[in-house]
């Protein structure tokens, strides 16, 4: 990509879904993206199953000053915490408005909703957020890969075998990955 390698940001918080976070990080790296991890503060974060920790490299506030081709929000309980921060909602809006790809996994649909990006948009997520999507004016789609403009969502890690190849194909069409 012109101007250096494509850049991806994975944003999470305490009680993140370990599979969704780590799979996303490594899958994006396999695609050749420069991957960074951010949260609301730089400290050790614990996964929801207490099976792993993750230390972000930067805060979301710092990430707002960067260029991100892809921003991924893994699920777990982390999205419920993240959606309470203005800088997280600002990052989601800037990503979509700036032409970047926003990836919402599982409960991360809450971030799309709280950022004001759900109305009229086709989305999926964990069954536990379907009412929230509908109540925010979104259209719930029960499929493993849902693309609406530059917001791409999936239900959970169980959909990854169908989701990630399609996401990679979309990023290739956009010129983000080779």
From TrEMBL:
Pfam families to which the protein is assigned, alphabetical: DJ-1_PfpI
PROSITE patterns linked: PEPTIDASE_C56_PFPI
Domain DJ-1/PfpI residues, every copy: 7-164
SUPFAM superfamilies: Class I glutamine amidotransferase-like
Stored InterPro entries: C56_PfpI-like (IPR006286), Class_I_gatase-like (IPR029062), DJ-1/PfpI (IPR002818)
Domain of life: Archaea
Family of this protein: Belongs to the peptidase C56 family.
Name listed for the protein in its UniProt record: ThiJ/PfpI family protein
Originating organism: Conexivisphaera calida
